[in-house]
Amino acid sequence: MASRKNQNIAIPLCLPNNCRWNAATGKYIKTGRQRTSLYVVEEALKKLKTVKGPVCVVSIAGPYRKGKSYILSEAFDQPEVFPLGHHFDPETVGIWMWIVPQKMRDSTGRECTVVLLDSEGIDAVMGEGLDDNQIFTLTVLLASVLIYNSAGVPTRHDLNGLDFIMKLSQRIRLCSNDGSVSASSPREDTEFFHKTFPFFIWLLRDVTQSIPTDCRDIKEYFLTRVFKDQGKERAD
Q1: What's the order of all strands across the beta sheet hosting 19-22?
Q2: What digits encode the pLDDT tens for the residues 109-156?
Q3: How many Cβ atoms are within 10 Å of 198's Cβ, its own excluded?
Q4: Considering the entire predicted model, what is its pTM?
């Protein structure tokens, strides 16, 4: 059982179907059922409906137990809105939401509401691949800005997570406003893709090693080492 009684902390946007949320008590419990899907929490939808004007959704994803909740809270000066765990098992299940009370301005000066989404960490020992895929898919599709949080030097496993995002983008059919399949040109589809999918940030944490001497900066390292087979377009 986990308690969320404080009004100044996040609530679940969606939970696994083996968890039940009680808005009156601010708690969720695990029912003992097998986890097979996610469901939307009605209280979170009600809170979202109160938001007026432009919205920027900032989501964070990555391996479990690597400090995602802490980073997301601190980056937007919203301390302790996402609960922090101190055990092997993950603290966050499903996707949790916090609406930043203060309005912010984007790069164009437009005022907007920032919604923070903290997602369940991938690769938990008690989790399954289907769970990770469901969480990762929703995190990508809901985000305006997606932060991928990893610790240490990038690994092949990190790339597998990014490869999932690329495959997801290839599977989604771009549709016109009326719901019919778009007959637009490849260039128009690419432009629409960049408007639809989130701005991506790979957050490298706790990296004490220096980049190779033949690389001018971290971007060149990614292009020549990490994404050498995918090319510059994929790295961007």
Answers
A1: 2-3, 27-30, 19-22
A2: 899 999 999 988 775 444 455 667 788 888 888 999 999 888 777 777
A3: 20
A4: 0.74
